[in-house]
Each structure stands twice: as structure tokens, then as C-alpha cells.
Design goal:
This protein is α/β, with parallel strands linked by helices. Helices cover 37% and strands 11% of the residues. The chain has one domain: HUPs (Rossmann fold, 3-Layer(aba) Sandwich), CATH 3.40.50. Strands 3-2-1-4-5 form a five-stranded parallel beta sheet, with helices on both faces.
Length: 231
């Protein structure tokens, strides 16, 4: 029997590579995307495109509103940082960090995994080329997995232990891109920008765009995403 898995799909470069990886490894993928009050809807549309392209078993879009709390440039009117140097991106926790976002997302994924009797949850966190987010670190993932197995029927009874799968966590952005290309990923479908325009064109200047562009450059490839002409 094919193993079922819940996969967090944002429509970005990492989660799309993650989806291709999980399918290549033989998992029956059920994808989950969040409309959480982020400042743009283009990533939701990207997630829909990706899920359709890979014909996932299920794709649910969960509505929660983290604007209730704010605390991030992605869920408020605060300005998204632009053109930060690489050393600055690696220092501290930026305003684009959404408080407890991965904990919230993983909790929803865990609930669905229980219903599906799926033992695997995939999340595209990365501890190398990232913007200092605390919920992307290996120690966070290990702690969440321990908690999940204390909090679920299958974990407590030992009938369906939960594994949090993070195959991209120790890869650079360039390595992720190369891996995705080997799996046939079409990165033109994806959306990484924190501050795209109304058409979905990326700004080319936020941390996410800079990390993505640097990754493609290091991989020796041109980024097929659409960027604003001014960038």
C-alpha cells in the first residue's frame, strides 16, 4: 500500500521541489495550502497550479486570519525589507517572520494526517539559505515531531507514529534547484516573492527574491519566474 502523506504547499520554490520529491519517493500526497491573511493571493494561485500539475490526491486551502495578531510584514501594512545584503539576511529574525506560522501550519497538517491515517508530514523548511526564521531549524522540527507523537492517538498507541519529513533542510538554495530540475520541476509555476505586484510579478528585491535569484545564479540557471521590469 502506498504511504499517505500530508504536504504543506505554499506554491513557492521549496515546497514545489518538496512535492516533486515526495511523489518521486512514492508517497500518496495530500497537499495543504493556507490563506492566512498574507498580503497577496498570488502564492495561493501558484499552489493551485502546482497541485494541478502534479495531480495530487487532495488539495485543501485552509482559511485562517493571522492578521488578527499582525506582528509581521506579511500580515500587516509594515514595509517589506528590500535589498538587504546577504550578511544582514543571516542576522536576527526579520519582520517578514510570521509569529508561530509553522507551528500553526503543522498543527493543521497533523490533524489532517490523523484523519487520513497518514504517518508522514512534509514541510519545506531550510536551515541554510533562509532569513533567520526560528521555526525552520532542525531542533524545532525534532521537537515538533516529539510533541506530535505525544499528542495523537496513533503516536500514543504506536499504531501510526508521525514523522515530520524535511528533505530540503540541509540543502542550499542552489542544491534545491538542482534537485528540482533533476525531478523535472517547472519553476515558472512557482511564486516566492514577499511583495509581488497585482499581476503576480516578483519584486526582485525582497529577501525571498534575492535568495531565489542567488540560488538560480549559483545553479547556473536563469530564473523562469516573472519579475517587474523595474527590478
Amino acid at each position: 500500500m502506498t504511504a499517505r502523506a500530508v504536504l504543506l504547499l505554499s506554491g513557492g520554490l521549496d515546497s514545489t521541489t518538496l512535492l516533486a520529491h515526495a511523489i518521486h519517493d512514492g508517497f500518496d500526497v495530500h497537499a495543504m495550502t493556507f490563506r492566512y491573511g498574507q498580503r497577496h493571493a498570488s502564492e495561493i494561485e501558484a499552489a493551485r497550479r502546482v497541485a494541478a500539475a502534479y495531480a495530487v490526491r487532495d488539495h485543501v486551502i485552509v482559511d485562517i486570519d493571522l492578521r488578527t495578531f499582525g506582528g509581521s510584514a506579511l500580515t500587516s501594512d509594515a514595509e517589506v525589507p528590500k535589498d538587504r545584503p546577504a550578511h544582514e539576511m543571516g542576522e536576527g529574525i526579520p519582520i517578514t517572520y510570521v509569529p508561530a506560522r509553522n507551528t500553526i501550519f503543522l498543527s493543521f497538517a497533523l490533524a489532517w494526517a490523523e484523519v487520513l491515517e497518514a504517518g508522514d508530514i512534509f514541510i519545506g523548511v531550510n536551515a541554510l539559505d533562509y532569513s533567520g526564521y526560528p521555526d525552520c531549524r532542525p531542533e524545532y522540527i525534532a521537537a515538533y515531531e516529539r510533541m506530535a507523537n505525544l499528542a495523537t492517538r496513533g503516536g500514543v498507541e504506536g499504531t501510526n507514529p508521525i514523522h515530520i519529513r524535511t528533505p530540503l533542510i540541509a540543502l542550499t538554495k542552489a542544491q534545491i534547484i538542482r534537485h528540482g530540475l533533476q525531478l523535472g520541476v517547472d519553476y515558472s509555476m512557482t511564486q516566492s516573492c514577499y511583495d509581488p505586484d497585482a499581476s503576480g510579478a516578483a519584486c526582485g528585491h525582497c529577501d525571498a527574491c534575492q535568495l531565489r535569484l542567488r540560488g538560480f545564479a549559483e545553479a547556473g540557471m536563469a530564473d523562469p519566474a516573472t519579475y517587474r521590469a523595474s527590478s
